[in-house]
Hints:
- Strands 7-6-5-4-3-2-1-8-9-10 form a 10-stranded mixed sheet.
- The chain is built from 10 helices and 10 strands.
- About 30% of the residues lie in helices and about 15% in strands.
- By secondary structure, the chain is an alpha/beta fold.
Amino acid sequence: MSNQSFNHWFGMQLHITDDCDQRCKHCYIFNDKSFKRSYLSFTNVQKIVENFCNLCELLECNPSVAITGGDPLMHDEIWLILNYLHQKNIPFDILGNPFHLNFEVAKRLKDLGCETYQLSIDGMKHTHDSIRKPGSFDATIEAIYILNKAEIESHIMMTVSQMNYKEVIDVIRYVVEIPVGGFAFARYCPTSLDRGIYNIPPNEYRNFLSQVWNVYDELAYRETKFFLKDHLWTPFLYEKGLFKTKGENTIYEGCGCAMRHMCVLSNGDIYACRRFSSKIGNALIDSFKEVFFSKRIAPYREFEKMECYNCELFNYCRGCPAVSYGTYGSFYKKDPQCWR
């Protein structure tokens, strides 16, 4: 189901399995001590996608699905799932690992309509492998070449923290030479185990953004697209005079939690945001349509409770509520790395 007359997209991040051959230091899944491994059968994926499409029809949005895990390629029924999405003309991206990706797999993904394949690089070789596992860096670089050959756009996502932020520019310069199709970074989301000890101090983080922006500007002519995923890019660009507000009291940009995307875990639980505890229903039991307009989702839209509510950039930024939750235990606290 994809009505191409719709002008907007609504996204679902669908975790089809928890199986993974890495145990990354910053993983919010395996850092959860109450975590129980599970996976979604093909039949349950069908139920969830149909449920999700019903919401998209109501909202007059096109459905967009990001298939992830764990590593989705480790799911026994991955090809049934992807063929189902292909038959329904639903665009999908893969967020996965490099270890089960070869040219035959990549070509098959391409034939089924995979638009992008996102991999992670969390530093240069030594740092990356220490965060993920030995051999992961080389496997990821090899996977980028495979994706390029199969004509699937490769994206690199970097999780930035005190552990690795000084290597971001080295990573950028490295991957544009391959090249990757796109590069972005998001900040590490603290857990109850560390409560923000890996957070970069606010002024230091702003200086970091300035350095990265200079490199983006320098390399703008290259093939790699640089995505400004972190919402704190907005105040940075505003202060540089490169971002203008519209002067209207309307939410335009910033965190889309509970507004234009939701996440479904491998047990069917619906989260407003996967990066912190935000369960609002279960897609195998509850209607997405009912959940979207329910009291359970309402707390994530109570913007007046957010400490940055009076900021002139509130309608465009709001920082990352997940980082606030991980640091302070509250979704409404000001982003701990915002310098304003």
